[in-house]
Structure formats: structure tokens, C-alpha cells
Amino acid sequence: MKLGIIGSGIIVQEFLPKLVKMEGLTVQAVQGTPDTLEQVKALCAENGVPGAFGTFDELCTADIDTVYIAVPNFLHFVYCKQALEHGYHVIVEKPMTSSLKEAECLAALAREKGVFLFEAVTTPYLENFRKI
Fold first, then answer.
1. What is the pTM of this model?
2. Separation of alpha carbons 32 and 59, rounded Å
3. What's the 3-state SS for 31-81?
4. Less Cβ around it within 10 Å: N or C end of the chain?
5. Which residues contact 117 (CB under 8 A, 6 or more apart)?
6. Tens digits of per-residue pLDDT, 70-108?
């Protein structure tokens, strides 16, 4: 998997050092915003990630096949839709979308493009799930 990450907040800062060590996975790039580009560059330099970008269009120039979306919830749908339209597999932080209609739209688009769409939720591994 050649991964591009959208977002540079706390979640990304916490999991990126572990992610870059995973076998079979290459983190190719991280996208922030034009305003956070210097922070993104520093984060990439610390973790050996070759691409640091401020826009989605720039991220698309990286050699990626999967996008991990870790931005504020209200942006999930927009970035998922863009990534799916470009033919990328998508992993998105929870909640995937703000509504059932948005989720159905993304699911249909993923099917149409022949790519995977996952919500990054580990419910089966949570203690309360085991109890249920």
C-alpha cells in the first residue's frame, strides 16, 4: 500500500511514527493546508516521509494508491469524494460522514470506481464490543 495522508493533526502526529515502520506499507505523503505546510514538512522530515503538500491536487502528484483521511469531521465527505473520484482506496476516520445520504453516495462512488472505502473504526477490538 502506498499511502497518502490528508491531515496533520494530533491523530496523524500520534500514529505516523508507528505507521512508517509497518511492513508492506509506504507512507508517501502528508497533506495539510497551505497555512500548515511548514508543520507538515517538519512532520514528514521527522518520519522520513518524502512528500509534504498543502493541497489535495499536490497530494495527487505523489505515488499513492490509498488515502487516509484524518481531518475534522465536517470535511470527511468532501475529501472522501475527491479521493474516490481520483480512483484511490480510502480509509477515513470516524464518523465517515455526517449523514446516511452522504455515506450512501460515497459507497456508490467506491463501487463505481472499483475501490475500497473503509471507516477507521476498531469496534471489534473495544472492550464493550467483546462484552456485547
1. 0.90
2. 10
3. ECCHHHHHHHHHHHHHHCCCEEECCHHHHCCCCCCEEEECCCHHHHHHHHH
4. C
5. 80, 84, 89, 90, 92, 96, 106, 107, 110
6. 999 999 999 999 999 999 999 999 999 999 999 999 999
